[in-house]
Specification:
Elements (H helix, E strand, L loop, with lengths): L9 H5 L3 H13 L2 H8 L3 H15 L4 E4 L2 E4 L1 H21 L12 E6 L1 H18 L4 E6 L5 H6 L4 E7 L10 E9 L1 E6 L11 H6 L1 E5 L8 H9 L4 E6 L2 H10 L3 E5 H6 L6 E5 L7 E8 L6 H11 L3
Parallel strand pairs: 3-4, 3-5, 8-9, 8-10
Antiparallel strand pairs: 1-2, 5-12, 6-12, 7-10, 7-11
């Protein structure tokens, strides 16, 4: 059966302007009337007025105060991705043909793990120094700004290592593109009992392991494969990033399974032995993730193209 056409409430829509949506979008990022006003170069009273009008039109409080903090309501958070998409599309129309990287003075916001930053810092440095010297870049920790922040427009891109067989997110608006293919290896300290031995599956599973947490990614393929084909690893310690795991690895007998690219380049991994894994771990890579509507913004499209170039 054919679906009925979507009803457009033009009268209600005509009462909501871009200034309302822009104020809401920035407020979701800053959680501050004062900071939002500063970013938009208008007075705090104007921001308060816009939000008051929007509260009436949307029949929702949008933000409530908890001590000195402004907390968005569930409805405001739900609106975030939609508002971001609307503003990105409008921004693309306004700046469809006049983007010049050398003169761009806007802001770029990326999120990644510290381990990913160690690998991709040279690429970002090249962009900043040679192509967009007047732009500003803010790099957030992915633990604090993940896929929800990407969907809401609080950040522009995420860079992270992941198992390609993992479905990191089912959201159709998020685009994933591999920046660099990788392998997985096992790290151990130089005087480990297995240092001069070939690493077998029995050796690997007999040891304790250091794990890496990521609340937004599914259990990696290699963990599932180990549990199904052999048995699960013993992981008594889980840390936030590769660097912390490598430091622990130097002071314990625990093994650390990680990115080969990172192990070869990271300062924290220096002095650790690198051994190939004795089992099938699938395919892994570092990927760039962005929100599809963001590509309406010429500045974001340009940076996306720069980051995707072969390096």
């Amino acid at each position: 059966m054919e679906e009925p056409p979507l009803f457009m409430d033009y009268i209600h829509l005509s009462r909501i302007s871009l200034k309302h949506l822009t104020a809401l979008h920035v407020m979701l990022s800053t959680r501050s009337v004062t900071q939002t006003a500063a970013q938009l170069c208008i007075s705090p009273s104007s921001i308060s007025k816009n939000l008051s009008q929007l509260r009436i039109l949307l029949e929702d409080e949008l933000f409530y105060r908890d001590g000195t903090h402004l907390i968005p309501t569930p409805f405001a958070l739900q609106m975030g991705p939609t508002v971001h998409s609307i503003l990105s599309s409008m921004n693309g129309l306004l700046h469809h043909s006049n983007f010049e990287p050398q003169h761009y003075q806007g802001k770029y916001r990326l999120a990644m793990r510290e381990s990913a930053f160690e690998l991709f810092a040279p690429i970002l440095t090249n962009v900043i120094k040679n192509h967009a010297p007047q732009a500003s870049f803010t790099i957030y920790s992915k633990d604090h700004y993940g896929f929800d922040a990407l969907q809401s427009g609080l950040i522009d891109f995420v860079i992270l290592p992941h198992d390609i067989s993992q479905p990191p997110t089912r959201d159709k608006e998020l685009v994933w593109e591999v920046m660099a293919h990788d392998e997985m290896v096992c790290l151990m300290r130089s005087d480990h009992a297995l240092a001069n031995e070939e690493l077998t599956i029995d050796h690997y599973l007999a040891q304790s392991h250091i794990g890496i947490m990521d609340k937004e990614l599914a259990e990696p393929f290699f963990e599932q494969n180990l549990a199904q084909s052999h048995r699960a690893r013993h992981v008594p310690v889980i840390v936030a990033d590769f660097g912390a795991a490598a430091i622990l690895c130097k002071h314990t007998d625990s093994l650390f399974t990680c990115s080969k690219r990172w192990a070869e380049q990271a300062m924290q991994a220096k002095g650790l032995l690198v051994k190939p894994l004795p089992f099938n771990y699938g395919k892994v890579a570092y990927s760039l993730v962005w929100n599809k509507p963001s590509m309406n913004d010429q500045a974001l499209k340009w940076l996306c193209d720069q980051l995707k170039k072969p390096h």
